[in-house]
Amino acid sequence: MATKSLTINNKFFEISYEIVNPTATKDMVFLHGWGSNKDIMKNVFSSYLKNFRHIYIDFPGFGKSKNEYVLNTNDYANITNEFLKLLNSSKDVIVGHSYGGKIATLLNPKNLVLLSSAGILEEKPFDVKIKIFFAKVLNFLGLKNLTKRFRSKDVNTMSENMYATFKNVVNEDLSSSFSNFSNNALIFWGEKDSATSLESGKKIANLIKKSTFISYDGDHFFFAKNAKDITTRIENGIC
């Protein structure tokens, strides 16, 4: 593990990262999802795609990269872009899972690989809508501390700045960003994904003109059991 420091808009970040195949001449950047970290991506993909220099990154606030600020997705994209410049990295291929798919798209790589990407607004379940309603009522009444009981367990463990960041990014619609992406895209999805639905994957594939869509029997982390087929398709399908 290594770290690099950078400052953007008077905000200081120390980014934790790992590189695999350091002598390779082309880069493949791996971006994890919300609540995840670089190790999940590295454990799945590091033994494949030997002709690429793999760059695994912990986003600020995840894994071993700390974050003291309230951020949005454009901030994360700008931070990642500046970080890649520090590594003299070309954006030959960027692989993004879930939330990482949104950032990967905004980075506009030559080849985009999406794994059950976020970015399409989906209808919230009724129980979630009820929790949001009561949280808003408590906020209106000045009882902000009581809203924590309406948060899900994974959200409730976040620091306040990361919870504010989560609220900034959770309801984004990146349809226009997908539609404006004009380079090559490979889109992989889990058919039983309950976090980002299969229909969202198909919608993204329709929005990105030069895209190929492949689905697998699996959930949001379908790629863990299908890494060999996915990486073979990446090798055969990139420009």
TrEMBL record:
<dbReference type="InterPro" id="IPR000073">
    <property type="entry name" value="AB_hydrolase_1"/>
</dbReference>
<protein>
    <submittedName>
        <fullName>Alpha/beta hydrolase family protein</fullName>
    </submittedName>
</protein>
<keyword id="KW-0378">Hydrolase</keyword>
<dbReference type="InterPro" id="IPR029058">
    <property type="entry name" value="AB_hydrolase_fold"/>
</dbReference>
<dbReference type="GO" id="GO:0016787">
    <property type="term" value="F:hydrolase activity"/>
</dbReference>
<dbReference type="GO" id="GO:0016020">
    <property type="term" value="C:membrane"/>
</dbReference>
<feature type="domain" description="AB hydrolase-1">
    <location>
        <begin position="28"/>
        <end position="107"/>
    </location>
</feature>
<dbReference type="InterPro" id="IPR050266">
    <property type="entry name" value="AB_hydrolase_sf"/>
</dbReference>
<dbReference type="Pfam" id="PF00561">
    <property type="entry name" value="Abhydrolase_1"/>
</dbReference>
